[in-house]
Design a protein that fits this description.
It is a single chain. The chain has 322 residues and is mainly beta. Helices cover 9% and strands 20% of the residues. It has helices at 2-26, 303-307; strands spanning 45-47, 50-53, 64-66, 73-74, 87-89, 96-97, 110-112, 119-120, 133-135, 142-143, 156-158, 165-166, 179-181, 188-189, 202-204, 211-212, 234-235, 248-251, 257-258, 271-274, 281-282, 295-298, 318-320. The protein has a seven-stranded mixed β-sheet with strand order 1-2-4-6-8-10-12, with no helix packed on it. Strands 14-16-17-19-21 form a five-stranded parallel β-sheet, with no helix packed on it. Strands 18-20-22-23 form a four-stranded parallel β-sheet. The longest helix has 25 residues, at 2-26. It is elongated and about 75 Å long. The protein starts with a helix and ends with a strand.
């Protein structure tokens, strides 16, 4: 009797064990799979919302990192020369990217900057030679010197209306850049903005633009035409030098001052038009302002005025608009 009861007890216990094991196997474990690069190492330093340090060894094999949502600013040089960094997931409240922050990140291919971003420091993305895709939010107001210089695979950029403060050489050396839309409230285009942008074919200049500084379109060999806005007042030295595909250009009546060697190397420029009845002046240090010897069309009754000015009188012929 005692043996039989013990046997029955063992059978019941075995059955309960099997039921428990089956229940455990049927339930999936709760495991949170982190976003690539989102695990925060103790060596990563964030102080008062400012990302101060992100060691190179904390960039995962995937090359993708996710910056925490608590970050509102990236300090100077945080990711400079991180050769394995391919993509950054930026926080939605980010307001500023410091100087040299991503300088020399030669594997970085995508920069989808959040709508909250207001400021990009100088050389922030300098020499990011694989950066092909760049999107910028509507709140960007400041872009520092050489911010995207030598991003040699970047092809297209559209900047928001709020971006009114630009440094020099912002897109210099972007050899694959084909199309740019500039913010409409920009009044000055700083020197060498598109220096050596060999593939640039389409530029939409701001309607309120007043000053184009020196060498802005230097060696833009593919630029065939460009419309200068009606409020433009001055054009710096060498602005169109080396634009060997440019065929014609019209100066609006508002232009008052022109710099040195404006069209040096513009071998296919056949026709200039100047809408001002009073010839624009050349800057004081100018010795050879236009280097242009082809047709110039001027307003009716102003031919004699242009023929009397050194620089303009080289144009041949000078004809009056009918």
């Amino acid at each position: 009797m005692r043996t039989s009861a013990l046997s029955r007890l063992l059978i019941v216990l075995l059955g309960l064990s099997l039921l428990t094991l089956g229940a455990c196997r049927g339930k999936e474990p709760d495991i949170d799979i982190p976003v690539p690069g989102s695990i925060i190492s103790p060596d990563i330093i964030i102080e008062n919302g400012v990302l101060k340090k992100w060691p190179n060894y904390d960039v995962p094999v995937s090359g993708i990192i996710t910056i925490p949502e608590s970050v509102v600013a990236i300090d100077n040089g945080v990711f400079a020369n991180y050769k394995d960094l391919k993509k950054v997931n930026f926080p939605s409240r980010l307001k500023s990217i410091g100087d040299n922050a991503f300088k020399g990140c030669t594997a970085l291919a995508i920069a989808a900057l959040p709508d909250s971003l207001q400021s990009i420091g100088k050389q922030a993305f300098y020499d990011c030679t694989q950066l092909k895709t760049l999107t910028v939010g509507t709140q960007l107001t400041f872009v520092g010197n050489s911010a995207f210089e030598n991003c040699s695979t970047l092809q297209q950029v559209e900047l928001p209306a709020a971006a009114t403060t630009f440094g020099s050489r912002v897109f210099a050396g972007c050899k694959s850049l084909k199309k740019v839309v500039l913010p409409d409230h920009l009044t000055t285009l700083p020197k060498s903005t598109f220096f050596n942008c060999y593939e640039l074919t389409e530029v939409t200049l701001p309607s309120l633009l007043q000053h184009i500084e020196g060498a802005v379109f230097w060696q833009c060999r593919s630029l065939k035409q460009i419309t200068l806005p009606s409020q433009l007042q001055s054009i710096g030295s060498g602005v169109f030098a080396g634009c060997s595909s440019l065929t014609s250009l019209t100066f609006p009546a508002s232009v008052r001052l022109i710099g040195e060697s404006l069209f040096n190397g513009c071998d296919h420029l056949e026709h200039l038009t100047c809408l001002s009845p009073n010839p624009p002046s050349f800057s004081e240090d100018t010795t050879d302002p236009l280097k242009y010897y082809r047709q110039l069309t001027v307003p009716s009754g102003s031919k004699a005025s242009y023929e009397a000015i050194t620089g303009w009188k080289r144009c041949n012929p000078i004809v009056e608009a009918q």
